[in-house]
Every structure is written in structure tokens, then in C-alpha cells.
Amino acid sequence: MVAAADFSTDTGPRHVAVIMDGNGRWAQARGMFRTAGHRSGMEAVRRIVESARALEIPYLTIFGFSAENWGRPVEEVEELMLLLRLYLRSEIADLHKNGVRLRVIGERSRLAADIVNLIEHGETLTAGNSKLNFTVALSYGGRQDVVQAAQKLAEAAIAGEVTPQSIDQDAISARLWTAELPDPDLVIRTSGEQRISNFFLWQSAYAELIFLDTLWPDFSKADLEHAIREFRRRERRYGAVVTNR
Ligand code: IPE
Ligand code: IPE
Ligand code: MG
Predict the structure, then answer these.
(1) What is the CATH number of the domain that holds 95?
(2) CA distances from residue 159 to 145, 150, 152, 155, 179 in whole angstroms, order as listed
(3) b/e per residue, 140-179, with b = 16+ CB within 10 A?
(4) pLDDT tens digits, residue range 54-89?
(5) pLDDT-derived band of residue 244, with 50, 70 and 90 as boundaries?
(6) Is 223 part of any domain?
(7) 51: which of 13, 24, 101, 153 lies 20 to 30 Å off by Cα?
(8) Is 164 a domain residue?
(9) Ligand number, closest to the Cα atom of 140
(10) Whole domain around residue 197: which residue ranges?
(11) Residues near ligand 2 with C-beta < 6 Å?
(12) Is residue 7 part of a domain?
């Protein structure tokens, strides 16, 4: 066991982002439909939010549904949207009670109107909370994020608000869907796959990447603690030379 105090903001990670993968394989290994894996994965989402709160991690982001996941069979997409509705309906009050601030990032216009309403309700209700900043990436793609930021910059240029020479990294970061979030320090991917799958391309420039074999529905607080311990063993150099040794 690792005490919460071990994870103070001084030592990080301040922002943990998770590519939740392996629901389908978890179900297939049990002779069940993939959708059963997604249902079980939803429980793992509840668990990680609770664990992040207990470990006093200030920012937690989960990759819930990628822009590319729309290309899955229509029944699977429908089941995922159904689970999303269930999650939002059942969890928003609890998140609020527990001091969690909910944000959703991604191509919101592609989501059904009732889901957008639930999201807006959740974001408004929890806007004043600060115990945990919990962000769900839905219909999210890292490239799509950069594209929409470029569109905003082009519009600002046409309006005379920015000049091409004034565009710097901060100008881009401020227009990403993640503008209100610090860059992730730690990106965890479950299920043994070692790829980013179009997640935080810009934001992960100096994130530590940790790949776990655990399938997402099996993800526990112990897995999160293990990843954080591993993160804290790593030496982050940001391209510089470490001089204190
Ligand atoms: C992650 O599990 C959930 C989503 C991407 C929505 P998968 O559904 O990708 O499960 P695997 O990778 O097929 O096992
Ligand atoms: C990434 O998982 C997307 C999410 C976790 C939401 P995928 O299962 O869609 O990624 P690939 O297909 O293995 O790259
Ligand atoms: Mg997958």
C-alpha cells in the first residue's frame, strides 16, 4: 500500500491520463460478448475515479471513445453510447458530492443531443469543484484536436487578433480542447498494446508512458499505484542534461 501523502503535488504526477484498452479481449476470454467487457469497463472507470481521489491526484483524464471508434460495428457503438448515458445519469450526482469536477473533451457535435445535455448538466453542476479534475475524452482524436486549434487560430488571424509571427506553443495549447488542463505527466495504456492511437499527441510531448498488460476491466487501485511508483522512479530530463549527480 502507498499512502496518499506519497502522491503530493510536489512529486507528481499532477495529471494522469489513461488509454483504457482491452474490454473486448476481457470479454472474449470469458466467452462473453464484447459489450459485456464494456459494461465491466464502466465499473473500472468508477474505481479509477475513486482511486485518483484517494491518492489525491489533481487531474485524471480517461480516453473513453476515440474519433476513430465511430467506425466500429453500429451495435457496439450503440452499446457504448448506452453505457455512456447510464454512466452520466448514475454518476454525476456522486461526482459532485465527492468534489469532482467533470469535463468532457472531443467532437461534442457528433454525440447525441441527450448525451450533450447530460454532459452540459454535469459540467455546470461540478464547475466549482476542485478535489479532482476528471476529464473524459469522447469522440476525441489528437490530430482532430490540433486541426480545430488551427481553425481557431486562422479565424483569430482573419479577425486581426493574432499575426502569424505571434503564434507560439502557448497560442496553440490555449486553443486545444485541453486548454484548461496541464499537460499529462503520465500516460498509462492497459491491455499490452504499446501505441498512442491518436490520443494526446501534442499534450504528451514529455509525458512518461507506462504500458500495463492488465485488461481495462481488471484495472485496480493497485495498478494505478504501481504505475505511479514506476513514474516516480523515472528521471524526466526534458532534453536537458541532469547535473546534480
Ligand atoms: C477499450 O476496449 C474501449 C474502447 C476503445 C471503447 P476495446 O473495445 O478496444 O477492447 P479490445 O482492445 O478490443 O480488447
Ligand atoms: C484506443 O483504443 C481508444 C480508446 C481507448 C478509447 P482502441 O482499441 O480503439 O485502439 P487501437 O485500435 O488498438 O489502436
Ligand atoms: Mg482496443
Answers:
(1) 3.40.1180.10
(2) 21, 14, 11, 6, 21
(3) bbbebbeeebeebbeebeeeeebeeeeeeeeebbebbbbe
(4) 999 999 999 999 999 999 999 999 999 999 999 999
(5) low
(6) yes
(7) 24
(8) no
(9) 2
(10) 14-141+183-233
(11) 19-21, 63-66, 69, 193, 195, 197
(12) no
Residue 62 C-alpha cell reads as 480517461
Which ligand has the nearest atom to the CA of 68? 2
Q: Pick left, alpha or beta for residue 102 (phi over 0 → left; psi -120 to 50 → alpha; otherwise beta).
A: beta
In a domain, 42, yes or no: yes
pLDDT tens-place string over residues 137-178: 999 999 999 999 999 999 999 999 999 999 999 999 999 999
Atom 9, ligand 2: residue with shortest CA distance? 69
Number of domains in the chain: 1
Q: Where are the beta strands (DSSP E) in 55-185?
A: 59-66, 100-105, 132-140
| Long-range contact set of residues 113-120: C-beta below 8 Å, sequence gap at least 24 | 114/85, 115/81, 115/84, 115/85, 115/88, 118/85, 118/88, 118/89, 118/92, 119/88
Model pTM score: 0.95
Structural contact between residues 208 and 187, judged by C-beta atoms closer than 8 angstroms: yes
Nearest CA to ligand 1 atom 12: 22
CB-based contact 38:79 (threshold 8 Å):
yes
DSSP 214: S
Confidence band of 1 (pLDDT split at 50, 70, 90): very low
Q: How far lies 94's CA from each of 43, 50, 67, in Å?
A: 14, 11, 28
The identity of residue 173, as a single letter, is S
